[in-house]
Amino acid sequence: MTIPPSYQRVQEHLQQVQNDPSISLDVSAIEKLKAEITESTDRGVSAALLTRISQLLPVLREDPTPLTTLGIKATAYCSFTDLRSIDPPVNFLAGIKAPSPPINLLALSLLGKGGLSPSDAAVVAGDSELVASLVELWLSTSTTEVAQCAFEVLWSLLEVDHTSPLENGDKSGGNKDAAGGQGLMWRRVFTDKNVYGLFFSICSLIDAGQPGKLSKREKTLAQGRLMDLVAKAGKLRWDAISESHIPEIESQYRSNSLLHFTACQMVDTGDVLMHMTLLNFFRELLQIDPPGLLARTHVRSTSTFSSPALDFLVSQNLHATILDYYLHPTKLDSIDLMYISGPIMAYVAQYALLYPNHLLQKPQDFLDEILGRIVESFALPTAQWAHGPVPTGDLRVLSALPRVMLVKAGVESPNPLLAIPTSPANKETLDTLARIFHGPPKSEKVQSLDLNAPGQIPTDWHKEAAAARILYFTYLNNNMNFWSHIVAAADTIAMHDVALAALSLMKAVITANWQTLDETVRGSADSRFQLPTEEQLGRLSPSAQGTLPTSGAWAVLSPPALTTVIPYLFKPPQTYANFVGGGRGDTESAVWRVATAKYDVLVALYDALSENKLEVEGYDDILRTLAQRVTEGPLGPAAQAGSRVDAMEM
Fold first, then answer.
1. Residue 342, number of CB atoms within 10 A of its CB
2. pTM
3. Where do the structural domains in the chain lie, given as residue ranges?
4. Separation CA 317–CA 328 (nearest Å)
């Protein structure tokens, strides 16, 4: 252990300031000492400095930031046990309650060390007044940095103290990432009246602006902070936010749990900004334990396709209200709609993506209404698709819908997918097509479980993978210039965002997760979403296709992609020499970004073809040329790279 060279000088200086507070702090000496403190610094130095700073802060007459930052640096390598062994004891409570943000930050830095181990968190949990002061500071402070730091400390204490699911009484398995704590911090926060009651009293608008209370603006800030905690806590312990803990407190605010208060009673939805925040909060709730494309091994909700969070939103009529907002936006004030339409559509997209089978159980009229809403939003002039604004929210909803729903739409009702133009090219439309054609993520490739009778699951990973292939060929059949448009967009570096999106679409198709239409995948005859047979799909596609490709890589080696995409990929990338001024105006490195994205597509195609040999004419020649282009790297042949460097040096 070492002692910093300037330690003694600073200690003497701080003693002088303590004796005579009119003396100004020597900031340069303090900064020098901060730079000298390392992990090998003697812990006695840290303890002595923190003690000196604690004694000096009450009498200091200037900004305490130099001292508080010194205290933070001096204790950076100390454990919570080290801090508790300092004599005289560190007064965490005084630092939390101090009306000074710099002092608050120092106290929070010290207290945060308790969140590094369950035993230290248990020590903090044993002090009711300290935990209550931490919660009050977090919710009440007007300083964003202090609020963020206080939340991080509070959350670290809860997270490290998270008990196993069985200790929580959750026999279903619950969250598998328990930290192995004792749960003392959770009990302190959610069952101590002096702590739990603060969530309600500080965030409720009932007494806003009254003497000694926060203003409405300050309370809305607290409300947003509480929503963050509720959403995060719900992911670890749903019971903590959804169950009643202290009825006498909850009933005062017409609620039966912290979740019910936060979602249904706390926010004034007449405040459009808070309404936006609330809608975003509901969307975060949907992310808690969603089923995705799976049926669950255990039922913790009303169905294997739901979740406790969605059940809550449904039971409080919040879910239906948001869906109704999306389908009938004229019910909302036109000014409010400008602000909340985005969060509404983000919620609908999240719901469709995370709860596809729950959505598919809705009546067909309801599903058709969603499709009709999207089709209507796509009825735009060509110039608007080129120059905007485009219906980004509806495109997001479309890309999240179950693909089997879009396949059915192509048979019995207008299919919004076919209304998406590729010319003029637009980043949002290309991103939407990429997600739909790529198929479901492989991480969700798990067989549906036997909690449902065969054929009763509207969709699963295999059906979505098969539907992605169907939708690709259906779209191609209705837009024979599709690949020509995509290649043209990828080659237009002046619109590099669009070019990158076009290249991402190429890669999405090449690496697509597709499935063929065998009987086990198509679904039962009585299913609303039974997929067509291979023969039926063949009739939907161009006759020139012959046997339809079963993979994305094969699709790219088939017309019309074969005569457009492959020549483009074989062509060397554009260089700075292609532009006036040798690329001096390329401040965003568009040429390089497009070249590397194109190279990624080349590598993806080469890898796909190397893994699975295809019976395609000229396959060996294509693979050999691909190997050569991959070897050359993103910049192309060495001579081309040289000309690129020359252009950059002009």
1. 16
2. 0.90
3. 115-268, 572-650
4. 16
